[in-house]
Automatic annotation (TrEMBL):
Keyword annotations of the record: DNA-binding, Metal-binding, Zinc, Zinc-finger
Database matches in InterPro entries: THAP_domain_protein, THAP_Znf
SMART domains according to UniProt: THAP (SM00980)
UniProt feature coiled coil, ranges: none
Molecular function terms, GO-annotated: DNA binding; zinc ion binding
Name under which the protein is recorded: Zinc finger, C2CH-type
Top-level taxon: Eukaryota
Organism: Cinara cedri
Domain THAP-type: residue ranges: 1-83
Record bears the keyword DNA-binding: yes
Region feature Disordered, mapped onto this chain: 192-211
């Protein structure tokens, strides 16, 4: 039997090369099962012993590592909270527990270490360890970013104006060339007296210069 995830539009299936765990529904714990079903929001779905949810729908705090092993075990009271394929109208109404994000690499950020306090914290969510403070290397000030945008828009307007002027000049040049060529053709065709000499002068003075 192939283990497949039962979550909405989740296509994960078990494969030995993919590091995804699959968890059976807590059928023997009706209260916890109701939480699972409530979070999944799938109508008319009745899980069986062959139904599974993959680990992508749980956060790291839902797991614990047994002493002496490296295998993650789902906590007895854990329930799924991450369903990224839900429709937008459902996503807006959900309040997920915040998943743990991947840590940035040293090459992407500068890391400063803040020594831990010597006194032991009483807050169970706070660990007395060295805490990395991540700062982005190149963040633009808001005013500087606005100025850069303004300069860019101004430059674009100037360039557009220059392009329009050049296009008008080219159009006038093309019309002038066309009219002069027509004039030269008519003069030669009608054999106007001294037309060859006049045509040559016009061609040298105007057409040659424009081209």
């Amino acid at each position: 039997m192939v283990m497949a995830c039962s979550a909405f539009k989740c296509a994960n299936k078990y494969h030995e090369d993919i590091p995804i765990q699959f968890h059976r529904f807590p059928l023997e714990n009706p209260e916890l099962l109701n939480k699972w079903m409530s979070e999944m929001k799938i109508n008319d779905f009745k899980p069986t012993v062959y139904s599974f949810l993959c680990s992508e729908h749980f956060i790291i705090d839902d797991y614990e590592i047994q002493p002496g092993t490296e295998v993650k075990f789902l906590k007895n009271d854990a329930f799924p909270t991450v369903f990224k394929y839900f429709p937008s109208y459902l996503q807006e109404n959900l309040t997920f527990k915040q998943p743990v994000l991947p840590r940035p690499t040293i090459s992407e950020f500068s890391v400063q270490e803040i020594p831990a306090s010597t006194s032991r914290s009483t807050d169970p969510l706070v660990d007395n360890e060295v805490v990395p403070v991540v700062s982005s290397p190149e963040l633009l000030d808001g005013s500087e970013y606005t100025l850069k945008q303004c300069d860019s828009k101004s430059s674009k307007r100037v360039l557009r104006s220059k392009i329009k002027k050049l296009q008008k000049r080219l159009k006038k040049r093309d019309l002038k060339i066309k009219s002069l060529k027509t004039l030269l053709y008519n003069m030669k065709k009608k054999k106007v007296p001294s037309s060859d000499e006049t045509a040559n002068q016009l061609e040298e003075q105007h057409v040659g210069t424009i081209l």
